[in-house]
Amino acid sequence: MKFPPKTLRNLPQSPEIWYCVIRQLKVWVNSPERRPFRPYALLVLNLDSGLMIEGEAFETAPEPADVFDSLADLMMGHPEAPSRPQAVLFEESRWMARMLSGLERIEIETGLHDDPTGTDTMVSELETHLRGGRAELPALLDQPGASVQTVGAFFSAAAACYTAAPWQELSDADLLRVWVGPQAQPALVSVLGNAGIQYGLSVYWSIEQMQRVYAQTGDEHDSLPAEGLHALFYEGMNAVAFADLEAMEAYGWPVAGETAYPMPVILYPGGGIDRPGAEQLQWYESLLLALPEIVRHHLHADSLGELAPLDTEITVNTSGGFCLVRVQYPAVGVG
Fold it and tell me: How far apart are CA 223 and CA 269, in angstroms?
């Protein structure tokens, strides 16, 4: 405790009412010395002036003593003169209960302040600032048609495919033609990971789109097609939407490893990012279920050690029912 209760209790008391918010932020702090972590923020708002008078970050969840010391610093360092507020209100009843005894000892009232919209806006603005102005990544469950079942099935298929490691047999230059279900025109799929840098899939919905991407030079984002490039990356948890992480914990969706969190994205020029809806998630689910089977039983090397051509169909059992996946290698007509 930085200041004895007697010292604080002897301070003059102002009519001010402070509002105290303690939250774990939806931002990641990356450090070479430790795993990425989400900091906690202590925000103190003067309800009389409407101004924030304190913003402090903690690596781990603060203890009541930490919060008390921060409030004491504010009292002793008040811009006008050292003073105690009349009351300190809290966003959560559990924090009010934990702070009640300490604040009562210095004759400060406690209570709750109900302002969910204003509080969320204040915290969201702080998080956006800490992310360098970038908006929070959209959640998969918020996309058109998505449900717990479709997203969960996608996670299961992604985990199984990561474990099968199809990139051990396929390089990103081994383009596949892929038809899923009644799809009329094939997609071109590149399996990423053979170089050990980025794991996942790049998906091109036409030869023209793929050729435009491959023909571009310069900035990576500027080479992306205007309609967006569809991809599925395997990443660490600090790249995943926070809402997806919360849903994973709530529903028990599987992940194959610390760097195997599936991240389906649509990338746009200028750095814009969107997420696929239920229809494309089921498309990914079907292909992810088929790829391990194709690599294990249908992909073979010829007498020169090169991959032999294949054109095969696999029936997979998806969240939407049985689905036929056709895969052709090499992608005829691409070059």
Answer: 7
Residue 326 in tokens: 């056709």
Distance in angstroms (rounded) separating the CA atoms of residues 173 and 192: 9
Is the per-residue pLDDT at 217 higher than 70?
no
Instruction: Report percent pLDDT > 90 for the chain.
Output: 73
Sorted by where each starts, the structural domains of the chain and their CATH numbers stand as 5-130 (3.30.420.10), 140-329 (no CATH)
d(CA 303, CA 296): 18
Helix (H, G, I), strand (E, B), or coil: what is residue 293?
helix
Give the CA count within 13 Å in the CB-facing half-sphere of 64. 11
Give the pLDDT confidence score for residue 333 in this predicted structure: 61
Q: State the pLDDT confidence band at 114, using cuts at 50, 70 and 90.
A: confident
Full-model pTM: 0.83
Average pLDDT over residues 89-116: 94
Residues 263, 233: contact at Cβ < 8 Å? yes
Sequence-distant (6+) residues with CB within 8 A of 33 are none
The phi-psi region of residue 156 (left if phi > 0; otherwise alpha if psi is between -120 and 50; otherwise beta) is alpha
Q: Read out DSSP for 117-142?
A: HHHHHHHHHHHHHHTTTPPPPPPGGG
Residue 100 confidence (pLDDT): 96
Comparing CA positions, the residue from 314, 316, 308, 315 lying closest to residue 294 is 314
Burial label, 254 (beta-carbon count in 10 A; 0-12, 13-18, 19+): middle
Instruction: Indicate whether 219 pLDDT > 70.
Output: no
Cα-Cα-Cα-Cα torsion 242, 247, 252, 257, nearest 10 degrees, comes to -20
